[in-house]
Amino acid sequence: MTLRTAIIGSGNIGCDVLCKVQRSALLDCTLFAGRNASSPGLALARARGVPVTDRGAEGLFAALDSFDVVFDATSSAAHQAHAPALEAAGKVVVNLTPAPNGALCVPSLNGDALLKAGNINMITCGGQASIPIAQAMTQANPDINYLEVVSSISAESAGPATRLNLNHYIETTESALRQFTGCSNVKAILNINPAKPNVYMQTAISALAAHHDLAAAKAAIAKAVARLRAAVPGYDVIVEPHVTGDRLFTMVRVTGAGDYLDPSAGNLDIITAAATKMAEAIARAGGRRGAAPAVPQPMESVA
């Protein structure tokens, strides 16, 4: 028995989620929804034997009985339009857009508390990469008065929806930083780098305070990294935590699993891995489960 999931959004993130769901022993993808009948994403899903629809949200709502959990990999605006109706229909929505809907989630920090949530907000790639470290810094140094996180990603990994949602990316990342650290003065920055070959996702985390307990911070960061690596093996500290003046600084790199895009697209991998981990946790907790998948049946075939 597996937890039945649907994916809406046939871009980079939706395709990467599909690859991870199909690798999970606890999850099954029973519908893949997009809006472009000739998109590479729908072609990928069809080739993997997944029922597809090219009617987007309309196709998703026409097949409500076929899934219990929806991975939303559309845009911020689209999520805000259709997520309330999905929740009202009793579906769990795992939100991979930066829309400010739902309960902010970093699985390694508060995943267990959100197993019954109707809309689980996976924040952003930069949030997933930085928040566990930022929280560790503030736990070790409660008087931190400013936090700054700067993520750099390759242009190839930033699809149209990512570029369209930059304002919500900043707002949602900063909101989550405040919630998880208790620090009210925060800043989030995203750089999209067109360099070739692709740059790997890197995130720099800085924390300002009059005094720092560096040993305590290193110990807390090491624990946070170990928890993260359980879900994302390619998560590494590339600049060890250190203090210069009033600034505590470290930098991490995320190497993706290469499921759909190049391993340099760790920004996709860290958020899709987090989303998949939450869906698996819901399955283990006894979330609604459907029958094991039968022979794939085209639902709204675009073949």
Describe the structure.
Strand 1, helix 1 (12-23) and strand 2 (27-33) form a beta-alpha-beta unit. This protein is 39% helix and 23% strand. The strands form 2 sheets. A 7-stranded parallel sheet has the order 3-2-1-4-5-7-6, sandwiched between helices. The protein has a 5-stranded mixed sheet with strand order 9-8-10-12-11. It starts with a strand and ends in a 19-residue tail after the last helix. By secondary structure, it is of the alpha/beta class. The chain is built from 10 helices and 12 strands. Residues 289-303 have low confidence and may be disordered.
Total beta-strand segments: 12
The level of helicity is 25-40%
Termini Cα gap: 28 Å
**Proportion of β residues?**
15-25%
Give the CA-based shape: globular
The residue-averaged pLDDT reads 92
Summarize the main sheet: 7 strands, parallel
Supply the helix-strand structural class.
alpha/beta
List segments where confidence is low: pLDDT < 50 over at least 5 consecutive residues.
Answer: 289-303
Q: Can you count the helices?
A: 10
The secondary-structure element order is: EHEHEHEHEEHEHEHHEEHEEH
Radius of gyration: 19 Å
Strand order across the biggest sheet?
A: 3-2-1-4-5-7-6
